Amino acid sequence: MRDDGGAPILDPETPLVVPDLLPVLPLKDTVVFPYIIVPLSVARAADVAAVDRALSDDRLVLLAAQRSPLEDDPGPGDLHPIATVGQIMRMLKLPDGRIRILVQGLARVEVEHVAAGDGFLQAQIARLDEESPEESLQVEALMRSVKEALDRAAGLGKGISPEVLVIAANVAEPGRLADLVASNLDLSLDEAQTVLEISEPEERLLHVSGLLTREIQVLTVQEEISSQARGEMDKSQREYFLRQQLKAIQGELGEEEDVALEVAAYRERAVERGMSAEAMEEMERQIRRLERSHPESAETAILRSYLDWLTALPWATWSDDDLDLDHAKAVLDEDHYGLERVKERILEYLAVRKLNPAAKGPILCFVGPPGVGKTSLGRSIARALGRRFVRLALGGVRDEAEIRGHRRTYVGALPGRVLQGLRQAGTSNPVFMLDEIDKLGADFRGDPGAALLEVLDPEQNSTFSDHYLALPYDLSRVMFITTANLLDPIQPAFLDRMEVIRLTGYTENDKREIARRHLVPKQLAENGLSENELVFGDGAVRRVIADYTREAGLRNLERELAAICRKVAVEVARGHRKDGGPARVEAEQVPELLGPPRHFSEELLAKDRVGVATGLAWTAAGGDVMLIEVVALPGKGKLLLTGQLGEVMRESAQAALSYARAYAGLHGLQGADFFARHDVHVHAPAGSIPKDGPSAGITIATAILSVLLDRPVDRRLAMTGEITLRGDVLPIGGVREKVMAAKIAGVGRVLLPRLNQRDLAEVPAAIRQGIEVELVDHMDRVLELALAAPPPKPPRPRRPPPRRAPAQAGA
């Protein structure tokens, strides 16, 4: 008999007598198998009492696993129904009151009933006798497979003692072999209980074989990982020794090491760039890390990349400003026609820089429709100042790291695009254009607009900190220029840091002059033509502007001119022009080259009509005219709105209808019950285009009252203004764009709110020429100007006097 922790000490041939009633010892995280010796620690008072009862009787105790290991006071229903009868072999009492016992499992039993008594649990049990399976080739093969797998697991590092392997090799019963293997597999509580509850020996051994196979697979993968790690470690050590030998050989030959050359280059560039003291200190710290790192390690690559960026930035490299005001004005006039306000602001900046070189740079925000020259104006400013120009497109940027950079903990980390632009420019005071700032996005990666607050704040950007660089960098001498189509999407805190300059668009005269100076020569050069091969007449350019490009900017005009140049280029390339003279494009030839006119703005009506008023609208591409149609149809007084009207415009229509109903009631128009018998339908044509804003209020009210009064609206008059329920006309925005749209559409008169009189000063005289502007403050004046005089009523026919009967003779 042996007592070595895994070998049975009882003779299996000796009959075992198990009482029907035994004290219960609940086990939290252990399952004891028959013929297996296990040490246990007993601390609970009920468990100590059960052990004392077993020692006072026949040393037998029921070892039952708990259903929940977290239960500190298990009851009769907290135990598994299949358990093991164990015999207490040794007992040791500890000073703290706990008991250490050594028990050996004897037999499987079924728990029939559990009850509490005498301070501990007692169980009524029934023994589960195992019948040895008949000897067969299948059982023999299964036992051999399990024994070989157990040996293999031990060879892969499983902690199985040699004594257990010897006992397993000599076991001839499949049930005992299954219990022995299961007790040495470190199974979970549920897995071990499952094995204990399988009473049929062959089935139990087959189940244990599956668990043993899984354990071997885990051990195999673990061994492969350990072997790979050892191989990589050995390879790294071998490379280290070889590099040390190479270093010694290079030292004997007098050759300098590459790292030393890199470090010297870093220090030389740092001096050239005028790096700050704080940056120099950080560079030296990173250089010391580089010298201690393995040349081929990933950390070395990260350090090299950081030092490259650190020494490539233009820390104290500045470009000298050209402060000649006359030269700057000449450059701006050469590149751009008009835009006098913008040019004046640039000259003011140059004058301040000339008088106070330490002044902080302004942050200008150019706001205007597409194609008016916002980006190209930034390039002209840089050329006038003699600075480098950097452009950063912000449309669709949603990641804060695009502005502040990535932290160096990320793989592939880089500085933000602000510092990347400065490295590209090579100076710390370029003209830096942040294009399309109103199209910034925000998502789970952060808000780049909030990150730009520090970049654009003159009080903070002198110590701008990039996440990658982790050092303060001075951006105060950078001239930042931002562009946007709309101001509404820009954050208020962001907008507060910028000086807004509006570029509202070009008049027809401006476009014609810009085409002559810039667009035509540019398109001739891009299409391989010269002035001796193609000449544009003034009438042709004017017709292209009027009939093919109704926009505030110049992009469509440039496209149409390019289309004409391409058609002429085809004739020149084919050699069809043999007369040697230039091709001249006049106004009557434009439809042959470009096709019929194709602008999409509203056409003026052929005649004055009832219920149709002409309004003026502001869009991101400039101003436009918009017709409002109103009809009255049988109904119950509902307001019908169509044409993709926004919420604000719908409210304006409702206010206009309320005013019209009040106006009609005061003047007794159309009968008192007109609205009780009719619905009012308001429609804005071009229904595929969304429309919103309050400025169509007086236009809708005029169209409604035109229907009520049955008086047509003057088609040569356009209007804009917000209406109140009392008929007052409130001011609106976009006056310049709306007046320009009226001029392009050929409108003779424009009605504006009286409070917008101050905005007329910003409308150039060339735009106002030929347009009569009427300032109104109430709907009574609007109706007086917009509605035609009521037709005179025809005279009522006079009834002839009644004929008298002729007098009879003798009467």
Descriptors:
811 residues; alpha/beta; 7-stranded mixed sheet; 5-stranded mixed beta barrel; 24 strands; elongated; disordered N terminus; disordered C terminus
Quick synopsis:
The chain is an alpha/beta fold and 811 residues long. Helix content is 42%, strand content 17%. It is elongated.
Topology:
Elements: E1 21-27, E2 37-42, H1 45-56, E3 60-65, E4 82-93, E5 99-117, E6 120-127, H2 137-155, H3 162-170, H4 174-183, H5 189-197, H6 201-253, H7 258-273, H8 277-292, H9 298-312, H10 325-335, H11 340-355, E7 363-367, H12 374-385, E8 389-393, H13 401-404, H14 417-425, E9 431-435, H15 448-456, E10 464-465, E11 472-473, E12 479-484, H16 492-495, E13 499-502, H17 508-526, E14 534-536, H18 538-548, H19 555-574, E15 583-585, H20 590-594, E16 612-619, E17 622-634, E18 639-642, H21 647-667, H22 674-677, E19 678-683, H23 697-709, E20 717-719, E21 722-723, E22 729-730, H24 735-745, E23 749-753, H25 765-768, E24 772-776, H26 779-786
Parallel strand pairs: 1-3, 7-12, 7-13, 8-9, 9-12, 14-15, 16-20, 18-19, 20-23, 23-24
Antiparallel strand pairs: 1-6, 2-5, 3-4, 4-5, 5-6, 10-11, 16-17, 17-19, 21-22
Helix pairs in contact: 2-6, 4-6, 7-8, 7-9, 8-9, 10-11, 10-12, 17-18, 17-19, 18-19, 21-23, 23-26
Structural notes for this entry:
This protein is of the alpha/beta class. Helix content is 42%, strand content 17%. A hairpin with a 5-residue loop joins strand 4 (82-93) and strand 5. Helix 8 (277-292) packs antiparallel against helix 9 (298-312), helix 10 packs antiparallel against helix 12 (374-385) and helix 21 (647-667) runs parallel beside helix 23.
